[in-house]
Design brief:
By secondary structure, this protein is α/β, with parallel strands linked by helices. The protein has helices at 7-27, 43-59, 74-85, 105-110, 123-130, 140-151, 171-180, 195-201, 245-248, 263-282, and strands spanning 3-4, 33-39, 62-68, 92-95, 160-164, 184-188, 204-207, 225-228, 232-233, 239-240, 254-255.
């Protein structure tokens, strides 16, 4: 039976470590703070905001929310991001995406200063990640995958890691983060030919394709580590990932559950980014 790579213990360990760092900042007169910027009220945005706010409270990070209506002028969002970017009491900005139709998402992301871009959405943050530079931050979900693999001591150096998915949010940054760990990385996607052969050749399979049940037993072999980033609601209300868990679990050496895997770590990683931003800005 596969080892379940549950996110809750990872998040708990990160929370404990981050709480000490938040206390150290406060002792220096710095109150770490995160600002959520939301346009509209999508339920998935609200759910993540609630989870992130709870995690911030546990660690000692202040939060505030700027919520704009879906019919707000585009310039109002850009002005708000610029104002928060220049506010010395705010150390991190999180913009919920995708934005409603009519908003220029690229312009909004570019308006976030890289030193406060705690979810790695600005062009400057992406460039820093690509260049392996210390400035900026990786997207939180991509980094949560790596935090989970490190916590469970999954060998990455010299391992063959396959990333299925090429988004700027997870697939591409996860591939770069795995390269930092000295893994040999292949990037595939839903249109890749012979996807099963690529999957079976890998030691670590990270699936972030955004397609429910894309990967099953026919793609896998025994002894692999499988990280499933996808989460989808089925017609009956149940949740599933990009991997057909019931088929993959008997084969895998280790596998993340959905829900309760990567998603449980993401908010904790976000808090770590806020603290790192506060530390850098206070120096």
């Amino acid at each position: 039976m596969a080892e379940l790579l549950k996110g809750a213990p990872v998040a708990a360990a990160l929370t404990e470590a981050y709480r000490a760092r938040a206390e150290a900042l406060r002792a220096r007169g710095v109150a770490p703070a995160l600002a959520f910027v939301r346009v509209g009220a999508r339920e998935d945005d609200l759910a993540y905001e609630r989870a992130a706010r709870r995690r911030c409270e546990q660690i000692g990070i202040e939060t505030r929310t700027l919520a704009l209506p879906e019919n707000a002028p585009r310039e109002e969002l850009l002005d708000a991001l610029r104002t928060l970017g220049g506010d010395a009491s705010v150390h991190g900005l999180l913009l919920f995406r995708p934005l409603p139709e009519g908003f220029d998402e690229a312009a909004a992301c570019a308006a976030i200063p890289p030193e406060k871009d705690v979810d790695g959405v600005s062009p400057a943050s992406m460039a820093a990640l690509y260049a392996d530079a210390p400035e900026g931050f990786a997207p939180c979900t991509a980094e949560a995958c790596l935090a989970l693999l490190r916590y469970y001591r999954v060998p990455l150096e010299g391992a063959h890691a396959l990333v299925i998915g090429r988004s700027l949010v997870i697939g591409k940054p996860a591939a770069l983060l795995l390269l930092r760990e000295n893994a040999t990385v292949t990037v595939a996607h839903s249109r890749t030919r012979e996807l099963g052969a690529l999957c079976r050749a890998a030691d670590v399979v990270l699936v972030a394709a955004g397609r429910a049940g894309l990967i099953g037993a026919e793609h896998l072999r025994s002894g692999q580590t499988v990280v499933d980033v996808g989460i989808h609601a089925l017609p009956d209300g149940a949740l599933c990932g990009d991997v057909r868990f019931a088929e993959a679990e008997p084969l895998a050496r280790a596998i993340t559950p959905v829900p309760g895997g990567v998603g449980a770590v993401t908010a904790a990683v976000l808090c770590g980014h806020v603290l790192r931003a506060a530390e850098r800005l206070s120096e």
